[in-house]
Amino acid sequence: xxxxxxxxxxxxxxxxxxxxxxxxxxxxxxxxxxxxxxxxxxxxxxxxxxxxxxxxxxxxxxxxxxxxxxxxxxxxxxxxxxxxxxxxxxxxxxxxxxxxxxxxxxxxxxxxxxxxxxxxxxxxxxxxxxxxxxxxxxxxxxxxxxxxxxxxxxxxxxxxxxxxxxxxxxxxxxxxxxxxxxxxxxxxxxxxxxxxxxxxxxxxxxxxxxxxxxxxxxxxxxxxxxxxxxxxxxxxxxxxxxxxxxxxxxxxxxxxxxxxxxxxxxxxxxxxxxx
Length: 275
Hints:
Helix content is 52%, strand content 13%. Helix 2 (36-44) links the parallel strand 2 (28-33) and strand 3.
């Protein structure tokens, strides 16, 4: 029988590429998204798509129930990829915006993970892969909400991995660096809804930096890789006999991990501040 995997956040980018690639490799893929257009495109591509809103516990439960009904109550792997960002300076970040980011990026993923674990315990094994980020272990300016959510996900996942050592369920973290995706474009509505940049003491910095990054066409990033790079790493995590705890994707994720170990904090802060 084909191995089964549930992948969250598949409307574009990393999630969509993972869903399509694993389907071609013979996995039975269940891909989630929030909007009807994305679901239709996924279904047309040959994967089973289902709606799942990570900030809605009922939606998470219903989506997983559909998967388990289709598989007869089993699931070989879960790839938690769903996430969004709300850019802006931390001092301008309302608590409501931070809560909204955490509802999806942390609480929703945690909800789904804890629902899947009993299934994998009962069947005698499985793999849970959490998609974190280079921003899960180093911060960057203007990304406070996203950084905080990924730091939280890293800590939660590392703890879970240690606790699950006495089970056949393997817990793995992927840490991509810059990957071509729509996350920046998708963050604009959240920025516009939550960040009052015009009345910020940092208005000049917004105009000189963040607004250009959000609204103007970006040049090529020599370190950016396509979503397929993350999928190749995911496949290693899923298919290795003994998977590693952490898999880094892109050169910046490796460089920043090394810098975090080697550099004094003041030097690391200066390096990060340069962008």
